[in-house]
Amino acid sequence: MNWNTNWREQAWQSLDETWDLVIVGGGITGAGLLHEAARLGLRALLVEQRDFAWGTSSRSSKLVHGGLRYLKTGQVGLTRASVQGREQLLAEGPGLVDPLGFLLAQYEGDGAGRLVYGAGLTVYDLMAMQWSHRYYSPADFQMLAPYISPTGLRGGFQYNDAQTDDARLVLRLIREAVAEAQGSWGAGEQGGEGSAPPRPPGEGRGEGSALPRPLGEGRGEGSAPPRPPGEGWGEGSRALALNYARAQELLRDDTGAILGVRLRDMANGADGRTTDVRARAVINATGAWADHLRGQVGAESRIRPLRGSHLIFPAWRFPVAQAVSFMHPLDGRPVFAFPWEGVTLVGTTDVDCPPPLTTDPCITGDEVAYLMAAVTTHFPALSLSLDDVIATFAGIRPVIGSGKADPSDESRDHVVWQESGLLTVTGGKLTTFRQVARQALEEICARLDDDQATGEARLARLHDDAPVLQPVDDALPGGAALPEETRRRLLGRHGREAADLIAAAAPDELTAIPGTPALWAELRWAARSEAVVHLDDLLLRRVRLGLLLPRGGDDLMARIRAIVQPELGWDDARWAAEERDYRALVAAAYALPDRRDIPDWPAQLAAAEATRERAAVARQERARLRQRRGGLGLALVAVVILLLWLIRRHHRGAAPHA
Ligand SMILES: Cc1cc2nc3c(=O)[nH]c(=O)nc-3n(C[C@H](O)[C@H](O)[C@H](O)COP(=O)(O)OP(=O)(O)OC[C@H]3O[C@@H](n4cnc5c(N)ncnc54)[C@H](O)[C@@H]3O)c2cc1C
Q1: Is residue 56 within 6 Å of ligand 1 at its C-beta?
Q2: Would you say the CB of residue 31 lies under 6 angstroms from ligand 1?
Q3: What is the mean pLDDT of residues 459-484?
Q4: Which of 268, 450, 541, 584 has a beta carbon 3.0–4.6 Å from 167's, enabling a disulfide?
Q5: Whose CA is nearest to atom 41 of ligand 1?
């Protein structure tokens, strides 16, 4: 499937029809909705104001997890849904969703003890029908997390969770939806270079075409086997996904009924062309931005945007073989460090981040100090400093505000709201996208279905046990010489398109980009066919060099350019402008802030320690006072008893004998 600049123009021209559904927002929620809608046979359009996964869904902690900590706050339903989602993704998406061990360190003075965590982990494991957790003594725990501080370590638990590449998960869902929807451009019509009008599905491109052939065009040897009858996606479905298309305004009739959305083309900035798109239903899947469209139907603001930030260290400076979770020394919140794509991520914070949220969110000096305080306290042997940080990133949690003083006390569960005809789906987690999509589509289907039979058939399909990701051909044509790990990675991240990626690679491009597990070929493929509009789309979300390499991968820019500039069709002036913008973005949102804005965290820790010591002394003093008061009280009681006894005795002695 080939999404190049030509495709973009064609896609824009093809918007003029009445869609069953317009999904606003190209994060995991929108992607999950598009995927399920296409499966149901709906004609669905997804629009994203920036790049696919530009919002929170490329800035998460990348954990596909059950959310153990949500058990603590009583969100059992959220934990159960997450565990189920995790197990299904692990089974269907190896190479994209992979197991990750988790170590839970326990120190003296940590709130909950071994019994509480043991009980929580038992419930957690039972939800996944497995028994993965185990308690380790301090000595054994240190073998698993060699650099962790031994001071006060009481031991800890190990259990199993999973992790992913969040932006690639979003893209795989979107591309599968588009490719698989019958009659879609993906079935042979997502035009290649200079390709004229869309071709009917199944009509192959000519022999010897330089461009990779889309799915369904008879790739020949090794291509995914044709699906058996009945396994196909919904009859008549059509799925189209367009990045850099902002839903600026809801279109409504005189009665207020929603007729569609007015889109603005954002590829070249905020003054692009507009077009009106008609739809039978509109879903607002705009995450932290959800209040904008809700405001247009008169709904009051409900989103409390909370920023969560991460620091990224090279693995050689901060080596962890699995995730390690520990309590922050200043406020007792859980913080974790975990391996991802050859680097170590440390996160996260949880602080209010008021709208308008128009630019890429970035870590603040306070957050840097907070995370550094955590890692330097718990991993003192590594002597980590700011010089070791290679990158940072921040994301905005779309949390539903309930006015709690501590942001971390707000629920992380999703919501589905029907407000004056607008369906909003927000909150929730990366992990639960399918459950969320199904719940939202159930509501939409009830509105759309014209007759009972169609409605019942759709509902049955909505809740069937179809795989969440399309099965892939493990043989991976052309990939026989690749290491197993690389084959897994390509199949997981690119699904059925992995073979096309390999076919498109130049001879020396099936090798890893230094310092990363990504291949040079992934850059070529993304530039050629994954709807890259700006350089940051390519280097931050398609292939994640901006997070994995210092200065956003600047040192490799010459080779990157040699591969991708011709694929993107950019002239030198355009390349120079893109490179300049990318560097500015990396400096503003993916690097450390000005060091002068980063508070002195050793001083903060020392002050906190001094406060703790003062509190301990005060506690001891109070205890001594209590003891003294208790002693005095006892002495007083004893004196009173003695006096009473003496008085009694005196009276007895004075009484006349009978
Ligand atoms: C720091 C952090 C760590 C997290 N870690 C995890 C984790 O490890 N595991 C997990 O399961 N979950 C995690 N989460 C939660 C998870 O990432 C989010 O719940 C999820 O990504 C939200 O997806 P979304 O699609 O609803 O929102 P988004 O990904 O933000 O997508 C919404 C999109 O809508 C677009 N948009 C907005 N307005 C318009 C408009 N008018 N027109 C068109 N497009 C528009 C935005 O540009 C955006 O891309 C984390 C969240 C944060 C912040």
Answers
A1: yes
A2: no
A3: 92
A4: 541
A5: 247
Indicate whether residue 430 lines ligand 1 (CB < 6 A). yes
Phi-psi bin for 383: left (phi > 0), alpha (psi -120 to 50), beta? left
Q: What is the pLDDT of residue 625?
A: 87
| Nearest ligand 1 atom, CA 293 | 41
Q: Is the CB of residue 49 below 6 angstroms from any atom belonging to ligand 1?
A: yes
CB 166 within 8 A of CB 53: yes
Contacts of 425 (CB under 8 A, 6+ apart): 29, 33, 283, 284, 285, 414, 415, 416, 436, 437, 439, 440
Superfamily name with CATH number, domain 21-62+165-199+238-302+414-470: FAD/NAD(P)-binding domain (3.50.50.60)
DSSP codes joined into one string, 325-365: EEE-TTT--EEEEEEETTEEEEE---EE--TT--S-----H
**Hey, whose CA ends up nearest to atom 17 of ligand 1?**
60
**% residues pLDDT > 70 (the chain):** 91
Residue 26 Cβ inside 6 Å of ligand 1? The answer reads yes
CA angle 279, 282, 288 (to 5 degrees): 150
Asked whether the predicted pLDDT for residue 177 surpasses 60, the reply is yes
Residue type, 200: P
Ligand 1 contacts CB of residue 70 (under 6 A): no
Residue 428 C-alpha to ligand 1 middle, in angstroms? 9
Rounded distance from Cα 220 to ligand 1 centre (Å): 38
CA dist list (Å): 371 to 63, 333, 601: 18, 11, 9
User: How high is the pLDDT of residue 217?
Assistant: 33
User: Which of 173, 289, 362 gets mutated to test ligand 1 (max ligand atoms within 8 A of its CB)?
Assistant: 289
Query: Which pLDDT does position 99 carry in this prediction?
Result: 96
**Domain ranges for the chain:** 21-62+165-199+238-302+414-470, 97-160+304-409, 505-596, 604-658
Residue 347 pLDDT more than 60?
yes
Residue nearest (by alpha carbon) to ligand 1 atom 15 = 429
Higher pLDDT, 452 or 423: 423
57 lines ligand 1 (CB under 6 A): yes
Cβ(434) to ligand 1 under 6 A?
Answer: no
Mean pLDDT value across the chain: 88
pLDDT digits (tens, 9 = 90+) for 577-621: 999 999 999 999 999 999 999 999 999 999 999 998 898 888 888
- The class of domain 97-160+304-409 in CATH terms is alpha beta
pTM: predicted TM-score of the whole model, two decimal places:
0.88
Report the relative pairing of strands 343-347 and 303-314 from DSSP bridges: antiparallel
Q: Which of 525, 522, 504 is nearest to 513 (CA)?
A: 522
Which ranges of 145-201 does DSSP label H, i.e. alpha helix? 166-180
Residue 214 has pLDDT above 70, yes or no: no
Cβ–ligand 1 distance for 392 under 6 Å, the answer no
